[in-house]
Amino acid sequence: MSYYRYHVFFCTHHREEGACCANHDAQALRDYAKEQVKQLKLTGPRKCRVNNAGCMDRCNKGPVLVVYPEGVWYTYKNKEDVDEIIHEHLQHGRVVERLKI
Question: Distances from the Cα of 8 to the Cαs of 16, 17, 64, 65, 71, in angstroms?
Answer without folding.
Answer: 25, 26, 11, 7, 9
